[in-house]
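(Protein data)
===
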Amino acid sequence: MIFGELPLAEAEGAILAHSVKHEAGMFKKGRTLTADDIGLLKSSGVVGVFAAKLGADDVPEDEAAAAVARIVGAGGTRVQAPFTGRANLHAAAHGLAIVDVARVRALNRLHESLTLATVQPFAIVEEREMVATVKVIPFAVPRDVLANALAIIGDEPLLRVAAFRDKRAGLVVTRLPQTKPSIIAKSEEAMRERIAALGGTLAAVRVVEHDIAQVTAAIAEMSSLACDPILVFGASAITDRGDVIPMAVTKAGGEVLHLGMPVDPGNLMMFGALGDVPVIGVPSCARSPKVNGFDWVLARVMADVKVTPADIMDMGAGGLLAEIPTRPSSREGKPKPQRAPHVAAIVLAAGQSSRMGTNKLLADIKGQPMIRRSVAAMRQAVDRTVVVTGRDAAGIATALDGLPVVLVHNARFAEGLSTSLRAGIEVLPPDTDVAVIALGDMPLVGPEVVRRLIAAYSPAEHRSVCVPVFRGERGNPVLWGRQHFETLKGMTGDRGARVLFEVLSDEIVEVAMPDEAVLLDADTPEALETIRAK
């Protein structure tokens, strides 16, 4: 191909690279100049044009684009006629885009003149949505390059759209004694919406105890009802192949093909099969509308795309998901990528120490005031530390001298703990994601406790209240997500935030601790001596 500024005498049959004005108007770029065009340009005083002139070994852009587009897509796609070297492919149905990534890369590495762009592999696409575009960059493709491209494609297209099937899914939801009806209802609603969004129907739902025998029977019943796929939403996360749901799949005559996945959220998904029917152990994060790894697998299953353990293991590249709503709305704003939360500690140090006789927070613990030890431990694990004072505010300030903390005096401390909670939350910066509410009289709580709570925090997976536990008993401090700040501020009287646990049970995660430090506070002289001894 010859490209450049050509004299008009050599421009007949050339393709304009830039638009050219003439006495009757304008010839736009891309026009193939005829003899009459040349005559008009001459009479208009034009002596040369920027244009491309093709040779015998050049395939014109539209011809080349059409040749590739005709065979690059398979079932489920429609090819649009080429124009200016571009030929688009559109989805013929609502489904899943299946892309042969390796061969798309091979085609694009042949030569800069020929490109193929597709949607992301396994993207969910609507009917008529563009799924690929073939674009010739210059005005032609060398004939040998086109031949090589067609050879790469061969008889195996690089892209197809697997239409979602009108599948009848079955759902088994398990419950424990403490499982609230609202959790069961939320699990069913989340699955019903997901299945419907993928063109299917949730045909049967069974709620059973979180017991191997009962889950086994429910899976067998779903199979007898010809449900495909079978989803099992457990009251407790699947943590091992010996757990309730994997064992139930096996006892029902099925097989656990893979446990877990390198996608977050969604790590604790189980994928199995009962004959040819997929059986999926649903991770708890799927109660949220946010996209998680389970959605990736479910979409393939609903489009009858085979899923193998290798497929699941390969999902790790790109598997750290942003918090993307499945049904975005203007109210939700732009999705945000996951990031480490901004953490503040609120240390409550306003109490009256009525059972101690003196201010216990100033009691000596191995050469330091108790409050100083408690606050210093918090500071090692958080971004900002707020200390709420009340009685003996001056003494507390002196005990904390030199520590970079924010002191907030609660003049209403005698009205109860709720006033101190409100005082601490009100001074938190706007970018605070979580607050760790700590008691000043628990000096044995180390920074590792707080780090464990922070690691457990995941609002996308409904872990927005993180509670430390030792041998089944809940302790302090407790981590609260920002979504609960207004509720905490609205509390009244001498009540701690723990009274909200029943209301917020869906959001609570218990975090096991290695020792009893989270249970030990210095409420009495005897308790203080126990702490000193430890």
Observations:
- The two ends are 85 Å apart (CA to CA).
- Confidence is low (pLDDT under 50) at residues 326-337.
- The longest strand covers residues 201-209.
- Residues 349 and 389 are 5 Å apart (CA to CA).
